[in-house]
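forwarding from the other thread:

> can someone predict this with phenylalanine?

sure thing
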Amino acid sequence: IGEEALKKIQEAADLKELNDARVAYLGKKSPIQAAMKQMRDMSKEERANFGKISNEVKQSIAKKVEAKKAELEALALEAKIQSEDIDISLPSRRLPAGSLHPITIVKNDLENLFLGMGYEVAEGPEVETDHYNFELMNLPKGHPARDMQDTFYIDENTLMRTHTSPVQAHVMLDKIANGGAQPIKVICPGKTYRRDDDDATHSHQFAQCEGLVVDKNITMADLKGTLELFVKKMFGEKREIRLRPSYFPFTEPSVEVDISCGNCGGKGCSMCKGTGWIEILGAGMVNPHVLEMCGYDPKEWQGFAFGIGLERVAMLKYDIDNIRDFYNDDLRFLNQFSGEE
Ligand code: PHE
């Protein structure tokens, strides 16, 4: 029986067959167990001898089972490792890459352009105080120009900023707090809010980029030269600008800046409503009262400032006619900008 059992165990091809063999030779119904029942009818010596032999047989079977089990398990592990082999030369699956949002592209372009002219980038809070958004921008309570910049109020003195102009005040007052008046050359891109009814050209949330230069002997010519450079770099060498007199409480004098129409080259077409020009931004010389409120002596310091709508720039640059396209997250729209940086 013992030899037969050892042979069966040795031949077991897998763990299941091995277990079957173990049950057959060591289980309650095994021939060894049956043989041991006959021990009752044996003489004392016979019984001792038989018991000894059958125990030895059982032990050698159990030993063999353990050895075979270890062998089969090692084989199974080896097979598993072989089947799960990783081929590092296999080309990986391509991960789908998104594209930059057109507003982000325009913001990056603006930043790179002005960084190249020696400007720094400054940021301010979107949740702003009445003081910074209006008072320091020379728009005291009751000022009629506040009507054009109605916004969302957090409480009586806290609001969603209506323009990036309050960052001008942050930058100037920061200089004053850190050692006194210093020349300034910054742009301040960021989100802005207004209580407008949304339509094809208006959105209650939009993006602007402020520009502020404060130094000694700054003139309107510096402003014009800077804007000309910006327009040519952003839209192409052929584009011209013109300044029209305008009004902003925080600049004096103030101008509205137009860019020659890229569609008709200034002759007049439907895109520029026959005028040859398209309005692009507001600008002016920093109002002496603003300089004063922000700690800069206007007898010593002058500055210019401008505010550009990023959606407007993107719409002109990419020929987009509905501002809502920027916010609808339609992949057919957004995918057109993949590959742009
Ligand atoms: N803050 C103005 C606006 O939002 C734009 C502007 C900025 C005009 C700086 C002049 C100077 O309309």
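The pocket of phenylalanine is lined by residues 163, 165, 248, 251, 282-284, 305-307 (CB under 6 Å). thats all i got for now
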